[in-house]
């Protein structure tokens, strides 16, 4: 069951203020993760407290890092039901989790942070885990 969209606006803005693109339909998810898309951070946002106090602020801090994905996008559990279901089908090797954060390279998942990984960390620790993942998977090759 979807939450009223008015309720979700400030929670969506917690991510869009950092340039995170909303992908609210399966087609938008596919466009964000298309072959050749480079590195894409995909956040499954949610209304829960660990999303508000930990995941969203952690993502915001991480995206200020010098090395970052080519794109950052989000779907909202309880708000973008079809998009979330589609993303979860793409992430079928991982149990469903919201909030959660996945990093893709050319449409393939290379890093996953589940709710259980988020709940036991604060926003600063989440940001550090994400920065480490960015350094590992998003750094450009030196020529």
Protein topology:
Elements: H1 5-16, E1 21-22, H2 26-32, E2 39-45, H3 49-62, E3 71-76, H4 81-90, E4 100-105, E5 108-113, H5 115-119, H6 123-137
Parallel strand pairs: 1-3, 2-3
Antiparallel strand pairs: 2-4, 4-5
Helix pairs in contact: 2-4, 3-6
Task: Describe the largest sheet.
Answer: 5 strands, mixed
Domain count = 1
Shape: globular
Q: Name the CATH homologous superfamily.
A: Glutaredoxin
CATH architecture: 3-Layer(aba) Sandwich
- What is the succession of H and E elements? HEHEHEHEEHH
- Structural category is alpha/beta
Taking strands numbered 1, 2, ... along the chain, how are they ordered across the largest sheet? Answer: 1-3-2-4-5
- How many DSSP-defined strands? 5
Please give the share of residues in helix: 40-55%
Examine the coordinates and then state which fold CATH places here, giving the name of the CATH topology. Glutaredoxin
Mean residue pLDDT: 93
Give the helix tally. Answer: 6
Low-confidence stretches: none
How far apart are the termini? 50 Å
Rg (CA only): 14 Å
- Please state roughly what percent of the residues sit in beta strands, choosing from under 5%, 5-15%, 15-25%, 25-35%, 35-45% or over 45%: 15-25%
Determine and state the CATH class: Alpha Beta
